[in-house]
Specification:
Layout lengths: L1 H22 L14 H19 L9 E5 H11 L7 E10 L2 E10 L7 H7 L1 E14 L2 E11 L2 E2 L2 H11 L13 E2 L6 E5 L2 E5 L1
Antiparallel strand pairs: 1-9, 2-3, 3-4, 4-5, 5-6, 5-7, 8-9
Helix pairs in contact: 1-5, 2-3
């Protein structure tokens, strides 16, 4: 029971982070930071705003542009810019991008009131490690994420539990989220190509 509760909140936290992070992929016009920093997070936010401005112009026939975002930028954005959107304390995150695949190795601390349920909070407090991995595809203005693996404190979580936990902890906050269905890429993004260490975006 304790492990299931931890998994549920952990999935909610990472889903929240992932939902915003992948919606926030954008340009890399300046040299990338070599470590997680507020500067890297702020830089990515500027790039996000530029993509939004392009969409706001309403010219769907503009020449396609290709941009990049690095693992460091994503990690920084999650830790510094999404802190208030994640329901638990995110101590660290290691984003791992490989061709067609996205993974995140995180460490999170659950406080005494993480869930609002005194009984659950009493048994699941403390720090836990969560690893999430899945395939990601973005093309023709549509994205799809296929969850492949979740481990909590090194223990694999059976896939049969994932959808139930997702529905309980993630859907109430993000009703449009669906593990089985493709979704529309935001802000006029046409494709996202995941490569080693970077995500290449066409918009």
């Amino acid at each position: 029971m304790k492990k299931i509760a931890v998994v549920g909140i952990a999935i909610a936290a990472v889903a929240a982070a992932g939902f915003f992070a992948f919606r926030s992929i954008s340009a890399q016009e300046a040299p990338a930071e070599s470590r997680v920093s507020k500067k890297a997070a702020d830089s990515l936010q500027v790039k996000i705003d530029r993509i939004k401005q392009q969409e706001a112009q309403g010219n769907s026939n503009h020449q396609s542009k290709e941009l990049e975002v690095s693992e460091i930028e994503m990690e920084s954005y999650v830790l510094f810019s999404l802190r208030d959107d994640i329901p638990v304390q995110m101590d660290s995150i290691d984003v791992q991008l490989t061709p067609g695949t996205v993974a995140a190795d995180t460490q999170m601390t659950f406080t005494s009131n993480s869930t609002g349920n005194p009984m659950v909070d009493a048994i699941m407090g403390g720090t836990h490690n969560l690893f999430v991995k899945g395939k990601f595809e973005g093309r023709d203005s549509r994205g799809r994420f296929e969850l492949e693996e979740i481990r909590v404190d090194g223990i694999p979580v059976p896939k049969v539990l994932i959808q139930t936990l997702f529905d309980k902890y993630v859907k109430p906050k993000y009703p449009e989220a669906d593990l089985k269905k493709p979704f529309e890429l935001p802000w006029g993004i046409r494709s996202i190509d995941i490569q080693n260490g970077t995500a290449k975006i066409a918009y």
